[in-house]
Design goal:
14-stranded antiparallel β-barrel; 347 residues; Porin; mainly beta
């Protein structure tokens, strides 16, 4: 139980330290007021059913090719496999769907990966209003958003690993004008993982969507930059209980500092039975999007707890490991339920 108590103490210390660190950086000040000022929001939508079943609190986990969408440092361990292939599908609100793919390869020089994701907006009708108030139909708009990228990660020591990734993101609003309808920008991600030596605990940090301002027509806007610090551990490996190493209880917590909304805390867990069946759950403190709809009342937006649940199976056939996962997330009263599916193959 000594390691388990140490993990809890380390968890508290990490988040106290992160709060102090954020407070010292002007661009990362808590209680910020610069909210709702970011574009290309599709870049921050989670692309992993396993990860989102844990509320996205996976900064400290190694997820193979799927780490390209969270913390690129997690690429450094592909579960002992030379190659890892990942496919994901997300059913978002308003009939919007997202699809993602990533491939990672383990080499003597580190692990290298490529990723791609695209948004299917379905049918969206456009309208144009003149100064006089007349409305003209524009027909169906051809909206699209996508990002393709490359990444690399390496174990610097047996306790520390680092990862970097770059993506090229494109958003087409479907409105043809003299400036064109597409906006494109290069986006960068970076992350670290550090094994603390306290049982199986891992301390991690990541920064995603670092970029210059994107521009549409003559107006610039920021991307959804987000900084995370996390702590994760398999609690069954940190107790004095007898273990056959076939079961696991991974608990992970992430503190999030987004550019365009208030800070959040996410705590997720994953129970693995015989390393074949996995059950997941999470809750996060955040702000329900419905609270930002203008109201007559002057009551400020309320902090809510959003829940995620998930499950998965993993099966090994010779040298090949196949995993299938599903996750359900409560995205707030406006967005409703979000469903995710993914398949991961390591060989």
């Amino acid at each position: 139980m000594t390691h388990a108590r140490s993990f809890v103490a380390a968890l508290v210390a990490a988040f106290v330290a992160s709060s102090s660190a954020f407070a010292q950086i002007p661009a990362l000040t808590f209680n910020q007021t610069k909210l709702g000022q970011a574009g290309m929001k599709f870049l921050e939508i989670g692309q992993s059913a396993r990860a989102e079943g844990m509320g996205g609190a996976v900064t400290g986990l190694e997820m193979g090719a799927a780490s390209m969408f969270y913390n690129p440092a997690g690429l450094a361990n592909t579960a002992g496999k030379c190659n890892d292939v990942y496919l994901a599908h997300t059913e978002w609100a308003a009939d919007v769907a997202l699809n993602a793919v990533a491939v990672a390869r383990n080499t003597p020089y580190g692990v290298f990966g490529v990723s791609a994701m695209a948004v299917d907006y379905g049918t969206v009708k456009g309208y144009q209003m003149t100064v006089s108030g007349a409305v003209t139909g524009l027909g169906n708009l051809d909206l699209s958003s996508m990002a393709i990228g490359v990444g690399a990660a390496r174990k610097v020591t047996d306790k520390f690993q680092i990862g970097l990734a770059g993506r090229y993101a494109v958003e087409d609003l479907g409105l043809v004008n003299s400036s064109g309808s597409k906006t494109s920008v290069f986006v960068f991600d970076a992350g670290t993982l550090y094994r603390t030596g306290v049982g199986s605990s891992v301390l991690s940090m990541s920064i995603r969507n670092f970029s210059r301002q994107a521009r549409h027509q003559d107006e610039g806007y920021d991307l959804p930059l987000i900084f995370r610090i996390g702590l994760a551990a398999d609690l069954l490996n940190m107790t004095d209980m007898p273990s056959d190493n076939m079961s696991s209880l991974v608990v992970s917590a992430d503190a999030l500092h987004p550019r365009d909304r208030a800070e959040e805390l996410v705590i997720g867990a994953e129970y693995g039975l015989m390393q074949k069946v996995f059950l997941r759950g999470a809750f996060r403190t955040g702000r329900d999007y419905a609270n930002f709809v203008p109201k007559v009342s002057t009551t400020p937006p309320m902090t809510t707890s959003l829940v995620s649940l998930g499950a998965g199976i993993r099966h090994t056939i010779g040298p090949t490991a196949v995993g299938v996962n599903y996750a359900w997330s409560n995205a707030g009263s406006l967005l409703g339920s979000v469903h995710r599916f993914d398949v991961q193959v390591g060989f």
